[in-house]
Amino acid sequence: MHASGRSPADGTAVAPLTTARRRSRAGVAALLVGAALVLGACSGGSTGPTAAPTSGPTTAAGGVGAPAGRGPTTSSATGSKGAPPVTAPTTTSITTTTTTTVPATTTTTAPALAAEPAGPLQSGSTGTRTMALQVSLKAMGYDPGPPDGSFGLKSTLAVWAFQALHGLPSDGVVSPAVEKLILARPAQAMLRPALGPTHTEVDLTRQVLLVFRDGRPTLITHVSSGSQHPYCEGTNCGDAVTPVGRYRYQRRIAGWRTAPLGRLYNPVYFTGGIAVHGATSVPLHPASHGCVRIPMHIAEYFPGLVANGDPIEVFRS
Question: Is residue 114 exposed (0-12), middle (13-18) or buried (19+ Cβ within 10 Å)?
């Protein structure tokens, strides 16, 4: 092709390449180069696999071809044959939250005690005067139960013993004069000091038992001894007598014992089958077959107050 635009063979005029056509071809080439550059720029930040160079144009999304010989093109299409993907390990962090529910604490406040009306105290009384009475009885060796200000059976049994030892009618009624005497806490002397500083005394006349240890009273309680009447329990007949005399504790049984004449709780024997033991009934009068009955709440700990070999005397005053 000559610059004149004519064919050298036949002289026929050939249309010269116009500047516009040249520019059009150049523009297409430029577009193709630009597309390749754009695709190369996008693939630079891709985390996917990189495709190997191809000898032919690679069609990118949008249908624009890239000339051969350009740099490698990254394709996101599935099925591209390239280096196997390198997958970074995935770490999953799981946070476990434990919720602990603390139950609400309920506090019960006992109603404040008020002083009882003026007059005697007796079973059923409740108030600060009864509580002061219980505290004083306990300090002297009696056991009226917990000092809670409520005058119940345990307090009545303790008052019976106190009244008996002080020559008063054992009726369980605390007159103002008796109340004053109890609050004064008079010392209790030994009734049988010849037994030594550690011993037990059982006064059948006043129906009381006293335990002294190292010269001090550790327990004073109401008891119920032999009724002094004949009895027959099946084939067992005899006289309900608690024998007087000086003895020593010999043996004991923990808990309930069922004997031919009845049940005994925590019995501590001092002669034959006669024992000091707990009973559910300890009336104001002698009622046993011969043993010395004591209240159940005292029988719980009585065996711990005396030892085998300790002296005990049963007498009438």
Answer: exposed
Return the residue matching tokens 């064919």.
7
152 pLDDT exceeds 90?
yes
Mean pLDDT score, 272-295: 97
| pLDDT (0 to 100) of residue 97 | 58
What is the end-to-end Cα distance of the chain in Å, rounded?
Answer: 162
Q: Which residues, in sequence order, are CB contacts of 264 under 8 Å at separation 6+?
A: 253, 256, 257, 275, 277, 278, 279, 291
CB proximity list for 284: less than 8 A, separation 6 or greater: 160, 170, 207, 222, 224
| Of residues 100 and 229, more confidently modeled | 229
Q: What's the one-letter identity of residue 227?
A: S
Structure tokens at 27: 């523009």
Measured CA to CA, the distance from residue 8 to residue 301 in angstroms comes to 144
Give the pTM. Answer: 0.66
Residues 6+ apart with CB under 8 A from 69: none
pLDDT in tens, 223-234: 999 999 999 988
Strands (E), the chain: 199-203, 208-213, 216-222, 230-233, 236-239, 245-248, 251-252, 256-259, 262-271, 274-279, 292-295, 311-315
Q: Which helix H or strand E contains 136, and what residues bound it?
A: helix 128-139
Domains of the chain: 128-184 (1.10.101.10), 193-315 (2.40.440.10)
Residue 63 has pLDDT above 80, yes or no: no
